[in-house]
Design a protein that fits this description.
The chain is mainly alpha-helical. It contains five helices and no strands.
């Protein structure tokens, strides 16, 4: 995951001068990209709907704790079925594709 279009990785590789996101609201890392960047608010809603639905179907208590692990490694959380993990990953892939970025 250290070879992506995220500025934190590009900065580490010396390809860009700053880790700051183009939105100006934080470091362009995976958490910012998936959960905070205003540039992707319009597509984030669909991703979060799938996460919230899957969280509820798994009988998890309270709202989902948003984390990169929840999106990219949900199988390791031991709360979701294989199909539920696939639903989350498919929503993540759709988000990445719609964002136009390489992750």
């Amino acid at each position: 995951m250290n070879d992506s279009s995220l500025r934190i990785h590009q900065h580490h590789a010396g390809l860009v001068d700053t880790k700051e996101c183009e939105c100006g609201q934080g470091v362009d890392d995976a958490f910012h990209y998936f959960f905070q960047c205003a540039r992707f608010n319009h597509i984030r809603e669909s991703l979060m709907q799938v996460v919230e639905k899957t969280w509820s179907e798994a009988n998890c208590q309270g709202p989902p704790r948003c984390s990169v692990a929840l999106l990219l490694a949900s199988a390791y959380l031991d709360v979701f079925t294989k199909d539920q993990c696939e639903d989350i990953l498919n929503a993540v892939y759709t988000f990445i594709e719609q964002s136009g970025r390489r992750f």
